[in-house]
Amino acid sequence: MTAEHVTAAASGTNFTVIGLLLAIFVPICGATAIIVWNYFRLQRHRADAVAMASYRKLAEETVANQAELRDQMAKLTEHMSAIEQLMRDVG
């Protein structure tokens, strides 16, 4: 036996127990860290989905408003054409 073996044996350190504890707790801690990380990533994804839904709704409302404005502009153009024709006929 070397001096290190004698010192380790004399100090009462059992490396098998330490190895078993590490083999149990390191994977558990790693799995817990991955689960927590994925949970917060899922929450961020959900928040992004809610924001995208509101943007989609805003875009749909904008398209509807633009179509309504086009209709109003067409009606205004028709009225202006009628007024211009009337002014030509009178003047």
What is the structure about, briefly put?
This protein is mainly α. Helices cover 93% and strands 0% of the residues. It is rod-shaped and about 120 Å long.
**Main sheet attributes: strand count, strand direction, barrel closure:** none
Distance between the termini: 124 Å
Give the total of domains: 1
Q: Which residues form runs of ≥5 with pLDDT under 50?
A: none
Helix content: over 70%
Q: C-alpha Rg, in Å? A: 39 Å
Order of helices and strands: HH
Which percent band covers the strand fraction? under 5%
| Average of pLDDT | 89
Summed up, the helix count is: 2
The SS-based structural class is mainly alpha
Number of strands: 0
Structural write-up:
- By secondary structure, this protein is mainly α.
- The protein has one domain (3-90).
- It contains two helices and no strands.
- The chain has helices spanning 3-11, 15-90.
- The N and C termini lie far apart (124 Å).
Write a concise keyword list for the protein shown above.
mainly alpha; 91 residues
Tell me the layout of helices and strands:
Blueprint: H1 3-11, H2 15-90
